[in-house]
Amino acid sequence: MERPLGQILMANRISILMYHQVGKFAPMREHRANYCDHRRFAGQMAFLKGFGYRVLDLDQVLACVRGERSIPPRAVALTFDDGYANFVSHALPVLRHHGFPATVYAVSGRVGGQAQWFAQDSGRPVPELMSAAQLRVIQASGITVGSHTVSHLKLAEATPERQHRELIDSKACLEDLLGEEVKHLCYPYGSFAPDTVRAAAASGYLSATTCLRGPALPGDHPLVLPRKAISFGDSLIGYFWKLVVKNKPKPQLLEWRRASP
Ligand SMILES: [Zn+2]
Hints:
alpha/beta, TIM Barrel, two-stranded parallel sheet, binds zinc ion
């Protein structure tokens, strides 16, 4: 049976949105989920403000998922993978303008360097990543900095020892750099396995985001949080569609929800 629009809008779930780069880009055919045009980004944030969305930080998301607080209507969270330098110039001013919290996942071994993993695709520009000073600037602006491992590897393909090292070392490095606890993790490439989740818990992370598509629900495993990817091609209609309508979880997410590692 069709649910009324009002009920769909008020549903008890959080759309955790996944962004990568925000900036000025020539139109591209491939890797579109890695780019968001800066004007579209500004439009998307104005959309959230205009329609009364509640933008939660990841501590609030965690409390909702654990059932410690109720999920407000129209709840979203904003995450930015990899720690691109263009976050500072193109995303941060818009977020500050609206007073929206967000989380940036930094690759601790590449701070102040480049996203070398782009070099695997010939002809694709290799973007700059934020420096330590820039990470401190965004932290001072209320942005949460989380870990995206030391070297941006596919964790599920690494040995358990390497996984532990990547998770513990990146957490310690970023905590030294920022002077505060790093509680939130994002699995590069969305690559993780049951032993990754165990290693994340043992390393002291409280939340971890994936590339499993879907909204986050109360009772979700906090170290297997689903997200919705925002892409270069997402007009406001596409954005609305992803926020409100596109909530069918990927089968793999349902597996994790059932298995609860
Ligand atoms: Zn990444």
